[in-house]
Amino acid sequence: MPSSLIDVLTRHSAHAATPDPWTDLPALAEVLDAVPDPRNRRGRRYRLGPLLALSLLAVLGGATSIAAINRPIHGYDPAVLSRAGLPGTVRPAASTLRRLLARLDGDAFDVAIGTYLAGLTTGGPPADQTPLIGLAVGGKALRGSRTTDGTVHLLAAVRHDTQTVLAQRQVAATSNEISAFAPLLAGLELSKAVITADALRTQAEHARQILAAGGHYIFLVKGNQPTLHRRLKALPWRDAFLNHRSDERGHGRREIRRMKICTVRPGLPFPHAAQAIQVKRRRTDQKPGTTTIVTVYAITSLPPGHLTHARPAALIRGHWSIEALHHVRDVTYREDTSKARTGAAPRIMASLRNLAIGLARLIGWTNIAAAIDHYRSHPADGLQLLGLTA
């Protein structure tokens, strides 16, 4: 494997801006080899790590099903498979791969790839100068996974800037996203993070957990917290200064966002709430000429003066990066029509999509459909990611 992936990756995208952390990282196949192998030791023909790494390359090239993942693996030259650590003369059947993915430990797999992606995005200035990063928490149901036992529902933590999934948990069928929040963040480094979440996850215990881990939060507040929501609406917003304004045009609409901030400590009934935020969005759809105005309230533990006013506005806007990720998985990868339903297979497939999208973003691709077209048309470039070609 090359000592640095930078030279390899920058050949793949004209927009590549790969940072130093790509250097001297463990090979992805080695990282995935550390995931517990559910198969009996007797009769194993394929090493787990290389097989999962080649599965990732298939997803990077647009594979949307287990059968589609197996086809390029089955078609690789024996020499390529041998370099990957797989027997070159024996080709895995789709049924073999399907059984393997169904039996994998989903938590262990997500921890492995989350740690790997976190390593790729670590770096930059010294720790005391590193700006706070946005980390969005949100959930998604895999509608195609529905069985008589229910639908697989995943909760994830996604970096705003890179759209990389650093942690993911499956919500228990008898529980909800609120109970999955604490274990989701438990293994993450939060000292330089601002957790953003929608109103469902605006819970006192979540706030305490984040602050105890050294992080901060920005939570949206709606009717599920009626007392808090009422107190926020009653603040003297008319007298507050306009702290930030943005005016954006695109996709046939114009959106003006106006943000005001009020210092509230210790006046709000929510742990560590230091400031209240009001955002008014005025959106005009140019074709019909209709205008809608929406007012959104949020609370944050960030103290006054900790960040410039533009940064909280960017963090609130950046929270929707997780919705953009879900959109790519649904539209580009047709996730909701996936027929994987057995065992852990739906979750593993979603995690492979997360990993493929995250790596494509880090390489420099801004359009995932274009990245898929590239790696489908140039499979050798995908193999270079694993150091399997020159």
Which overall shape is indicated by the principal axes computed on the Cα atoms?
elongated
Low-confidence stretches: 1-8, 14-26
Question: What is the H/E order?
Answer: HHHHHHHEEEHEHEHEEEEHHHHH
End-to-end CA span: 9 Å
Instruction: Report Rg.
Output: 23 Å
Please list the strands of the largest sheet in the order they lie side by side: 3-2-1-4-5-9-8-7-6
The percentage helix is 25-40%
Percent range for β-strand residues = 15-25%
Query: Tally of extended strands?
Result: 9
How does this structure look, described?
The protein is of the alpha+beta class and 390 residues long. It contains 15 helices and nine strands. Strands 3-2-1-4-5-9-8-7-6 form a nine-stranded mixed β-sheet, with helices on both faces. A hairpin with a 2-residue loop joins strand 6 and strand 7.
Topology of this structure?
Blueprint: H1 6-10, H2 28-33, H3 48-60, H4 66-75, H5 78-84, H6 94-103, H7 106-120, E1 133-141, E2 153-159, E3 165-170, H8 177-186, E4 193-197, H9 204-212, E5 216-221, H10 226-233, E6 242-250, E7 253-263, E8 275-285, E9 290-300, H11 310-318, H12 321-331, H13 345-363, H14 368-377, H15 379-385
Parallel strand pairs: 1-4, 4-5
Antiparallel strand pairs: 1-2, 2-3, 5-9, 6-7, 7-8, 8-9
